[in-house]
């Protein structure tokens, strides 16, 4: 990284650009009310007014422009109207569409004027369909606003003597991109406007696929050297980090700005190109939380690429996250996705598999609480003197009840219109339909949260209460009720001697597999939505590993007290697919073996095996190659997704004590990376406590 | 069927040989190196470790078939990752009979033996015949210093080194650098002289001093009392080995 980039990065981290932030959000409501605008028109007006209110900011030395100056997104309805509008309906999180992925290739290949032409032509064709006309007018309104903003940026660049940048902004996003620089600039501006319009977790999709040809052409024609291209890419990445503090999320950094690399092209050939490697290198050298990087791998992926990816892992940013094409693609096909589309999948905000430009999917809509099902089954069945089979039966029923209740709530899902975002989806402008009315794929995804603890609890009961009979049911129930107060020896026995997920121990793994079977069965039984979408089961946990343990306002799932795996009330659960916190497992190989037993054909919502490796593992190139081999082992075992971290416990403890010394320390939280010192203490503690595979 | 005492099994040990490996740490060692960072490995008996994390029994008895079954669960994965199993300790040759039986039961796995060489030559040769690569630890050439710092004579170790050289089995010499003890130019030169000219020697590894060496003694109910200055930087003079025509690496 050269000095200029170091300076740009430091200035961004120091928040120099925040000096240009405006104090207040714009007021939109007054004009919406005065004009009595419809919902789609309000959203279009929101985008237009936001874009109009943006002040042009060109920082010294910048080549990729756009710095957001507006602090917030104003509401399009008053609270009372919003309440009335959404009464009886289910909203996803804040309401606006989030966590989907555009087909950014549409923007780069057609330009906004090209998209505008499509809208106009459809408008002529559908001129007697008011809803279509309204949608298309809304889309055009936003296009015109963005073009005006680009023109203001171009003017300002010219005034500042940056004719080169002015030329870029005069060409894009209006026209198709002709160079790598234009393509990056076009994407930067148009993606930032999606955020400005209140949509969030705005993914970047298959970046190396839609962006790669522009790089390739410039390199071949000698318009750019590799070094210059890397510099532009680095600047683009820095620009993506400017506005993180303005994005909504459970914790700062949870913003879904992920991109996906590698994998297959729709025709089944390898998609890896020069940009795949360049992104890995630049991200490794920059060490920033955005964009979050996903790498699609398969049994064909060569060790050199995996080694390069492992060099990125070494930086401790918590990415790349690996998805195994050999497993993911068949799972998507089994859930009704066309083969070509399945091969084109990307990873959404955290780990969910979606198809760019073709999915209006809500893949993080909720979670099934495995601990709730298991804990309830254990407590009630043991109290009634029932058998272990009956505990399993009860667990299964509980999971079915949960999924059924979720499905009923989700059937009332209400998606607000998003005319601007629709411009970058396939078919919206072509058919005059807003994306909120559905795209080719309209499925929902739910996480299967905290599975390892739940399986461990079942395994402990089976082992000690039933198989060897060493633990009377009454004693276990009393201990659970007392949160193990006065039962410390029993708690330690459950914790240390019980069979655990993560050690390739069939006694626990078999129960883990069963939990996901019940979950998949339930999704098949109740998951058909009125509009034809499915409920896709997943293996992630999101923030539920904390919420289910400590409670959270508005959470519909119950808080779980002490559990039969020896976990105390209040202690967090396992995140995603990971051994329960604090459990001594045999090691990374056994952990992969444990999680390879899940039937991933039935699981297509993703959720990674999460592993922490000591930073000492990454000491030399030979060891880094071994990390690459570990990734290959994950692929060959038929696991679905993997997320590796490089961590030093000492560093984390020091950061806890002296945050001021570790402002740039980045960690993986659940499906995303953030700055350690910007996390709430309970999330920090969980990261410190997560299983470390200490390798000397 | 024989059994051995294992104090740890670690997976993905990236510094214990080629590829992806699982290392089995056998309990018991004839040496009591003053700098030993695994004090719980010295006694052959299972022993209680009391740390802030609670009490834990270090050392578990395995029958050879049981341990072989455990390791064979991963045989395909280890083989296809250019790796295998490493036997370390303690001193694995204290369980030579067990080791021989165990390796014979392994499913065609690459075996690394990590040894201090202080064992009967008969035991050493038996295990050697079943080993693909040897990590041979050498500390001190001066007999008196060796006795003082490790508690045993080094004649057996040097004799087995000769045997190893004669078998032609590939081996790596590993030297723990201990400040002012093993890292003196004089000792390093003597070590280089002892191993030069052995065709099967792959390389010499100089291992950094482990500053955390003393931390585990208290938990094992033992006392850590180095008579050298731990804080002194070590002398990792590789030129001595290079001048002797040896490949050398600081790891």
Note down, in words, how this protein is organized.
The complex is a heterodimer of chains A (696) and B (251). By secondary structure, chain A is an alpha/beta fold. Chain A contains 27 helices and twelve strands. Chain A has helices spanning 3-14, 29-35, 39-53, 79-86, 104-125, 130-159, 163-171, 180-196, 207-221, 226-240, 274-286, 303-314, 325-334, 339-343, 370-383, 388-410, 419-422, 428-431, 451-467, 473-481, 488-497, 506-526, 544-550, 588-595, 621-636, 649-657, 681-689; strands at 258-262, 292-297, 321-324, 346-347, 353-354, 362-369, 444-449, 535-537, 609-614, 641-647, 666-668, 673-675. Chain A has a five-stranded mixed beta sheet. In chain A, strands 6-7-8 form a three-stranded parallel beta sheet. In chain A, β9, α25 (621-636) and β10 form a beta-alpha-beta unit. Chain A is globular and about 80 Å long. The two termini of chain A are 31 Å apart. In chain B, α3 (96-105) runs parallel beside α4. Chain B is built from eight helices and eleven strands. Chain B has a single domain (3-250), classed as Alpha-Beta Barrel (TIM Barrel). The interface between A and B is medium-sized, with 25 and 20 residues.
List the helices and strands and how they pair.
The complex is a heterodimer of chains A (696) and B (251).
Chain A (H helix, E strand, L loop, with lengths): L2 H12 L14 H7 L3 H15 L25 H8 L17 H22 L4 H30 L3 H9 L8 H17 L10 H15 L4 H15 L17 E5 L11 H13 L5 E6 L5 H12 L6 E4 H10 L4 H5 L2 E2 L5 E2 L7 E8 H14 L4 H23 L8 H4 L5 H4 L12 E6 L1 H17 L5 H9 L6 H10 L8 H21 L8 E3 L6 H7 L37 H8 L13 E6 L6 H16 L4 E7 L1 H9 L8 E3 L4 E3 L5 H9 L7
Parallel strand pairs in A: 1-2, 2-3, 6-7, 7-8, 9-10
Antiparallel strand pairs in A: 3-10, 4-5, 11-12
Helix pairs in contact in A: 1-10, 3-6, 5-6, 5-8, 6-7, 8-9, 8-10, 9-11, 10-11, 11-12, 12-25, 15-16, 15-19, 16-22, 19-22
Chain B lengths: L2 E9 L9 E6 L20 E5 L2 E5 L1 E4 H9 L2 H5 L4 E6 L6 H10 L4 E6 L5 H8 L4 E5 L5 H8 L4 H13 L3 E6 L8 H11 L5 E7 L31 H5 L4 E3 L1
Parallel strand pairs in B: 2-6, 6-7, 7-8, 8-9, 9-10, 10-11
Antiparallel strand pairs in B: 1-2, 1-5, 3-4
